Amino acid sequence: MTEQAPPTIEGLLYNLVGLPDAMEDFQEQLAAAGTDVAKLTELKIQLEVFMELSHKDLADAKDILGGEPSKRDGRVLSRAEQLLGGEESSFAALLKEVQDLLPAEEAAEEVAPESEAQTGLTRSELLEQAREKLEASKEIMDPTAVALFELLIAAMEKTPATAAATRGSKKEKKKEEKIELPLEERQDEALEKSGKRGFLSGFRRQFARTGKAALTLGGRRGREDMKEEVLEHREISAILKRALKTISSETDLRNTVDQLMRENKGVMGLKNSNKAKDILALALFLKDKGLIGDYETGLKTADFWDEEKMDDVVRGEIDGVASVLKRLYDKDGEDGEFHQYIKRQARFFAKVFNAEVAEAPAKVKATPGDKILFKATPTPPLDVVPKVETPAVTLGGKEVLPTPIAEEVDATDFI
Amino acid sequence: MSQVAGFGEKEGKGFPGEKSGRPTLAEVTAEALTSLVDLMSAPVTLQELSEAFARAKQINDKQIIAGIRQKISRFLDRTQKAEYSLRATMTSLESGDARLAEYQRMLDLFSKSLDGLVDLEEQVGTWLERN
């Protein structure tokens, strides 16, 4: 695996002094993007990641230089602070400009959680509220959805708030001054404030999508019950999503996952490849289950891992996912959607690792607690792929993805 | 330049302290060598800008002085970037490398000019704030 050299002060200052140039580059890209949603979305992600990297550069440079930098270095630091400073900074203003240019439907993902999150709650209060709502809704909710919410809440409880959470503290303070409104009123208020006509209809489309997903999951209940369930599902999901957003983001991880998602081959040579793979699996699973709405939200879900705590957190997460998978096995039966999901994922992971994969059998037998094996052969050139290791993951106390990727690919071994 | 262009497209073998998608050391080194021109022009630019500032102050033209400040800032950004890339290149060289002494000599030579430019930028900024 490629090792990153430690930061040098020259490298950090080089990046920081280049911020005005970078700003110009972004402005040019913005002008070139016009109204192309895909380009604007990509630009938004790039800008967010770049800002996080630069914040980290600035913090590292300050640490290294200490309290008394030279006049020249001090100039670079203070200019960078101005550009990256607060919400009124040049980069933040540019990001807002990009967000504003995204159409209402795209922006709904940004606006909706934000508006729903005007609850005046701190992170721990949000968690508490999520737990209460989950408890109150357990009776009417699909067990799978309950399990997923439990998993997310558990993940949040375990995840430490770190630097990025601190950066978000101003927002948190602002939020604390707001008065909680019912969901519908908050939606209306957001619509009023944003002036975006498509916002509510975007939300309704999301609602319709969620409703469809819930109908698929629930199956036996009547339509009215489902509507109620969907409302609960949607509200809890929004609270959790928002809470996840306020938790620290880990830039390396985001880059890794981002690259993975975009290129389907990017784990090679990257620092956190195993972790990224785990997280990717989790994000894809949640996405597939409709808990997270789209690719971008999937990335944000993956954001809350902290590199320092990565192993414990990821292992815990994957254990949690594994227990959900087990419940799905129990519930779903041999021909259920989950087995189809596994087959799709097998092919996807094979693609990720540039491996061949055999067609999975039409029916897959499963016994809870059984081993799930995934064998794949990395085929890219060795200079591109130094080494890929599979993580040790447990399902019900047993390893489920323990096989080193070095042998033949056989998705039929999945169960 | 482009810190932004090519973002996320590299393999993570980046400039020391950098993440994937940033310039590689080879790129920075190449940039350092080509940007020596910036460093070399620093003394001339300092003198030109100082004289321009003095003339503009005499006629109290804020617009020109604001333009001068902008030029100073951008020139400083470029030359400081060149300086850091040279320094980074130096840290990557073996201790016995003959180029080290030469690069160090260049940096020492221009160090005074760069400090002078920082001072000038500060003076111009202060003048604009007061006026």
What do these coordinates show?
- The complex is a heterodimer of chains A (415) and B (131).
- Chain A folds into 3 domains: 9-102; 103-246, no CATH class; 249-415, no CATH class.
- Chain A has 18 helices and 2 strands.
- Chain A has helices spanning 9-17, 19-33, 37-65, 71-84, 90-101, 104-116, 123-137, 143-158, 163-167, 169-176, 183-194, 198-218, 223-246, 251-263, 273-288, 295-302, 310-332, 337-352; strands at 394-395, 398-399.
- A two-stranded antiparallel sheet of chain A has the order 1-2.
- Chain A is globular and about 70 Å long.
- The two termini of chain A are 30 Å apart.
- With 131 residues, chain B is mostly helical.
- Chain B has one domain: Up-down Bundle (Methane Monooxygenase Hydroxylase, Chain G, domain 1), CATH 1.20.58.
- Chain B is elongated.
- The chains are: A mainly alpha (415), B mainly alpha (131).
- Chains A and B meet through helix 1, helix 2, helix 3, helix 4 and helix 14 of A and helix 3 and helix 4 of B.
Which terms summarize this structure?
heterodimer; A: about 425 residues; mainly alpha; two-stranded antiparallel sheet; globular; B: about 130 residues; Methane Monooxygenase Hydroxylase, Chain G, domain 1; 4 helices; about 0% strand; elongated
Strand arrangement, major sheet of chain A: 1-2
| Poorly predicted parts of chain B | 1-22
Q: What spatial form of chain A do the alpha-carbon principal axes imply?
A: globular
CATH architecture label name of chain B: Up-down Bundle
| Structural class designation of chain A | mainly alpha
The biggest sheet of chain A, with number of strands, parallel, antiparallel or mixed sense and barrel status, is: 2 strands, antiparallel
Number of strands of chain A: 2
Cα distance spanning the termini of chain B? 35 Å
Form type of chain B: elongated
Task: List the total number of helices of chain A.
Answer: 18
**Rg from alpha-carbon coordinates of chain A:** 22 Å
CATH class of chain B: Mainly Alpha
